[in-house]
Amino acid sequence: MDMSGGRTARATLIALLWFPSLLAATPASAAWTDNNCPGESWELSVWKRSQARDYAEKGDKEGYEWGGGCYKLNDKDDTPLQPDSGGEGADCSGYVFKTWALRNSSGADGFRFWEHEKNVHGPYSTADFISPCSGCPFKLLKDKRYATTTYMDAFVYRSDGGGHIGMIYSEGSGGFDWIVEAKSDADGTRIAWTDYRSQTAYRPVARKNWTPECFPNCPR
Amino acid sequence: MLPELPPMRRVACLLVLAVVAAACSSKPSPNQAPTGKEGRAFAVWPEDTPEEAALAAERLEADEDPWRADPAATAGEFARRVLGWRDPGVEAVGAGGDARTFLMSLPGAAATVVVVGQLVAGRWWSVVSARGPEGIEPTLSVRDQRLDLSFPLGGAAYADVSVGYGDRSKALPGSDGDVSLELGFRPTTPGHLVVLLKDESNLTVGVIASALPAGDVAAG
C-alpha cells in the first residue's frame, strides 16, 4: 500500500470536512432545462411563412413554461404539474418569438433561427406585441378581416393585467381560425379552432419582412 | 497534465482541483454580469442566489431549520411565513426530477401550486415557484434597471409586490396590478418576484412567485 497516497487522501477528506462550504458552493441542478436544452441558434437570411408554420407545428402538444423557451420534441409535456420552475416549453410570447425567428435584442431586425431545444424566450412580452416600438420587426395590422391577415400573422390582447398571443396556423371562417399557440400550463402548446378574430380585445399583429414564398424563383 | 503520481495521490489531487474549481467558479466578481448557468433563475425562497444558498448550507448543517430537509414541510413553511396562512392543507400532487409539487389550500383562498427543488447542497429544499389560482399569468419585463409588471387582480382587492436580487430588494404594497419600478441597480445576480393577492381583510387569496434570472428578462 502506498502510505503517502493514503495520507494525501486523508488530508483531502479532512479539508472537505473542515470546509463544507466548498461542497455547498456548487448548487444542485433542479431545473429540467439544465439537462435537456442543448439547442443552438444561428443567423438566417431567409425565413418564409411556410417555414415558420412548419416550425410552430413541431412544437404542438409540448409543454408550457412562463418565461421559458425550450422544447424536447416528443409530443408530450415533459414537466406536467411543475409551473414556472425551469420546465419544458415557452409561454405565448416566447413561442411567437422563436417561430417568427426574431433576434434576441429588442427592436432588432433580421432573422435568427432558434432550435426548439434552445432555452430562450426573447425580449418581447404581449405588452410589446400589442404596442410595437417604431423600429420593431413586427407591426399592428389595420383590421382583422380575412383579406387583411394571412397565416403566421397573430392575434394579441392585453386587458386587466392579463394577455395572450396566438398565431394563425391556417385561416378559417365565421370569425374562427386554426390558431397555433402556447396556451397555458394546463393546455401546453396546441393547434385549436379558436375565435380570437371575433373577440374585440384581440388585435392583429404581423411580423415584418417575411421572405416571399417564391424565393429564390420570384418573377422579376 | 498531472505528472506521474501514485494512484491514490493522483485521485486526491484531482479531487482537490475539482473542489477548488467549483468554489472559484461559483462567484462572479461584483461588477461582472453573470453568464450562462451563473445567471440562471435559482429559487424564490428562502434564498434566491446560489451564493446565499451556500451560506445557508452552513447554518443548516448545524441543524437550523430542520424542516428544510423535508419537501412538504418546506412548502408548508412557505405558506405560513410568506403567504401568512396559519394552517394550510398540503397535498403532494407530483414529482419529477429533483422537483416536488404540492397543492396548498386554505378556506377562502385560491388553491395554490408550490414547486420545491432540492437546491442546497443536494440535501435541503427551496421554493422554486408558487402559483394560484391556476392559469394566472403576469406580464414581466426587466430591462436594465427598470421592471414593468402587470397581472390580473381577479377577485383580489389589491396586491403586495416584492422583488429581490440577492441582498437587494424592493417592496411595493397596495398595487392595483400595474407596476413600474426603478430598481436602482442592474440585476447581476438571480432574483425573485413575489406577488401576494389580498382580499379586503388582508388574507392572501392568490400568489405569483417566480425565480428570476440575472439581467434582462421578458415573460408573458
Plain-language structure description:
The complex is a heterodimer of chains A (220) and B (220). With 220 residues, chain A is α+β, with helices and mostly antiparallel strands. Chain A is built from 6 helices and 10 strands. In chain A, β8 and β9 (188-194) form a beta hairpin. Chain A starts with a helix and ends in a 13-residue tail after the last strand. In chain A, 44% of the residues are buried. Residues 1-28 of chain A have low confidence and may be disordered. With 220 residues, chain B is α+β, with helices and mostly antiparallel strands. In chain B, the strands form 2 sheets. Chain B has an 8-stranded antiparallel sheet. In chain B, strands 9-6-5-12 form a 4-stranded antiparallel sheet, with no helix packed on it. Chain B starts with 6 loop residues before the first helix and ends with a strand. The chains are: A alpha+beta (220), B alpha+beta (220). At the A-B interface, α1, α2, α5 and α6 of A face α1, α2, β1, β3 and β4 of B.
| H and E string of chain B | HHHEEEEEEEEEEEE
Helix content of chain B: 10-25%
Low-confidence stretches of chain B: 1-5, 11-36
Q: Numbering strands along the chain, what is their spatial order in the largest sheet of chain B?
A: 1-2-3-4-11-10-7-8
Give me the secondary-structure category of chain B: alpha+beta
Rough outline of chain B: globular
**How far do the termini of chain B sit from each other?**
49 Å
Largest interface: A-B, 55 and 68 residues
Report mean pLDDT of chain B, rounded to a whole number.
86
Strand content of chain B: 35-45%
Q: Strand order of the main beta sheet of chain A, please?
A: 5-10-6-7-8-9
